[in-house]
């Protein structure tokens, strides 16, 4: 031992001993020993070594080292390099042996060996409370409080816990924090041993012994360790065990059995699998679920988002979490699998790129090279280093299987994994490898799903895909993957009931397979078959725009791949239907439907014909060909009856009922729908396969007729139940199909609150799924509800905008939406504009025979005439009389009451009270229900004003009879 010339401060009070490899460094005595023998160092070299060892694992800059070792002097870096070289020589630091010092180019130096702190043998027991060698805990930890509490409690009760999880999940951080939390429980006797840089399994006992300050007296100090620990109460933390897992398992098992007061906390990417071991699998930080709209406050409820914000802010950028970017941040955290290291590395760059650009970068290719903190261990500097660390610990068969599994997107079942991973290996070997990958945290297993699903973290998957591409096997594995999911979809499609919800979780894999099939390296024939087989899944998930993309590619490829007739039928059908709902009401889409119908007739597929007739009927309604739609529905009924398919015939009668409503034939409409509802299989059933139907379509159709014929209470009750049933299906397209057809009943009854809450969801879903026409209809409905709440300016703007967009898409029923617009304009005092608007609606309705709303249109025209700058009361009266005649001819008592009220008010205004009473009273008296509703209440009040005294008793008796249950 020599006393160092440099004057570093004495540290005798703490009795600190620093241990690394065969060395013990005593700062208070300024002494360093190798295997018990004093090592001769100069004072400056000792100070350098002490400074580096105390910051082991961290890069210490050259400037800081000079300031600590030569304070107040102006020496140059060359002097520092000379002393570092001498220190390396004294320690025996070489490329062929143990490494202690690392030069970080352009930055400084880092002490890379594992360092532990041990109490001096001579230290008094009263000083042992401060003998721990734990690294400093993080100043702030996000989302791990419960994990630390659970680990601490389990460790106290059970003595042996292994924290397991993938790289970057935060195992070391949690273990260190648990150690700090338990310091008092162990009177400070908590010892931390890092094994991450240990490549030699035989050295594990010596490293643990050295960390405890024991002198190695043999090649295997295990006996000395057990003797030393036998009667001591202590917590031993064995960190990063996976490089030497077998040796650690043997040592831990022996120590656990021999030392009853010893508690062991291990961290590893796989279990030690020894007696007494309890597992704590460290989960990713919770992230927001998919397709969730978040405010900033909502997002901060998730620990992954809080960590992201903390690291992004600490990086020195100008990032601020706002309502505008909260959903993007949530998406980033979810895409990063809630892995803290991945979140930290990504958040550090958000200031430079922005959240939206970061999502695009992740979509294109997960950046595995982003650098983290300079002070981090080398394996945690980048995502690539973290994953490569684990990858290099795998056996060659495990690496091969991991790379093959990288072809999966969003997870896989065990059956899928075996099918794609297997090659020449037998099934038992593949199962063992998959099980091993899960045990080593390279694969995550979700046992909560049925069947259980495996998943690679996105970062691991990106790394493994690079390895797969480099191996030359990517094309073969991608073909195998595509064929597996084609076979799966065809099996589901061939089963009775065809429940494609069962394979909804596989959509990411289906999309990936389609991408490969239609790529330059892909298999177009498999792509055509896969696109056709996936159509019901696209419709089940309401992904119609994407469906159009893939079926278009498949149709373009049909001739060159000799696709089958049935595939062509499915593809043409899907393209026509998808285009219709995405707002493309053109001959191109109609021609695809007609082509598909020709193919169904050619092969005698009656269910296929029925589905296509359903879609053609809807297309014709959308474009305003109402007479043609009636003929199409009649054709469908004939086809169904000819094939003795009575359920299909009932479905076609619903279409006939709908067509008759548009044409103003309400008695026929009711007859058709009631006949359809007699079929027991119709109620609430949606046919399997590609369909645009929705539950309760017949009930909503009947509810509309009931209101029009004067039964508002029955209509309201029926439509509320129907919409509740549709919402329970949790299917966006079904909701977007059903709500507009039901909306009129709510509107006619003045029950806007009953459906107003659904409209906002309707618009969001229609926009999300690119259902352009239905989105515009939803915006029109929203405008009408705003007008009903007297929010005139906002309502007029929204309704006008929706009508203009629908008119530009040639939407046929736009005349019905012009009517509430004209009525609102008239009520707001814009009589001239209201008249122009309703005249356009009436002209369009007459042109396409849209007679459903004609009585109300004529009533609104009369209102507009009365509110013109120069009112025309005579023409208004003529329009109301005409409207009354049309309503009576149609049997539309609901509309008749509206018109009669308006005409009675006009006659009352002209002093014709008796005529007004005699006209309105019989209309009112024909109602048997709904007397508390706005229309009938208005009529009752008006009749009370108009009623001659002689008629009071008769009217009261009539009303009382009408209101009796």
From TrEMBL:
Residues 15-113 bind DNA. Pfam families: HTH_77, NB-ARC, TPR_4, Trans_reg_C. Residues 15-113 form the OmpR/PhoB-type domain. It comes from the Bacteria. Keywords: DNA-binding. This is Winged helix-turn-helix domain-containing protein.
